[in-house]
Amino acid sequence: MPPSRATSELDDAAHIVELERAMARIAYLLTRARRHDRAVTACGITVDRASVPLLRVLAEADEPMRLGELAARLDVEAPHVTRQVQRLERTGYVERVADPDDRRAQRVQPTAAGHAAVEAIRSVQRRWMREALADWTSEDLALLSELNHRMIDDFAVHGACLEAERQQA
């Protein structure tokens, strides 16, 4: 006999609870100051923890970004991005360039040093992941990667829908 809808919904609810718990644990492990400090020490670079996500987004972008677009992508307030960009400019990791669509505006892009810093951090983090997941099969790693991307894409779509609803209200 197939499970009832109520049983299926209870199972789904339990899975969501466990997924949320697992994600909270991952977030905790990935955002610890000590972990960041170990990573930048291993890389031989100096970049504060709050600047790394911003620098990564810029390095992954196809073109220089406006500060407002960067704030939206990071889901933070514009003044936060402005402060981080100023800090990264002083350390030589980003530079401002003219906006080709609006000469009064500026965009931000990583410098060669900024790209190198991101790649160094990625390299250390990937090495740690390889070490931690050394006993996993290639198939398990591929499935985990696929499901994580799928989940993140669904979260992004859902977040955009919520934001559109908020703006219409």
What do these coordinates show?
Helix content is 71%, strand content 9%. The chain is mainly alpha-helical and 169 residues long. The chain has a two-stranded antiparallel sheet with strand order 1-2. The protein starts with a helix and ends with a helix.
Tell me, what's the shape? globular
Give the SSE string.
HHHHHEEHH
Q: Give the mean pLDDT.
A: 88
Please outline the major beta sheet.
2 strands, antiparallel
Number of helices: 7
Number of strands: 2
In which order are the strands of the major sheet placed?
A: 1-2
Radius of gyration: 20 Å
Given as residue ranges, the uncertain stretches (5+ residues, pLDDT < 50) are none
Sum up the structure in keywords:
single chain, 169 residues, mainly alpha, 2 strands
Q: Briefly, what is this?
A:
With 169 residues, the chain is mainly α. Helix content is 71%, strand content 9%.
Topology (elements, then pairings):
Layout: H1 5-30, H2 33-43, H3 51-60, H4 67-74, H5 78-90, E1 94-99, E2 102-110, H6 112-132, H7 138-168
Antiparallel strand pairs: 1-2
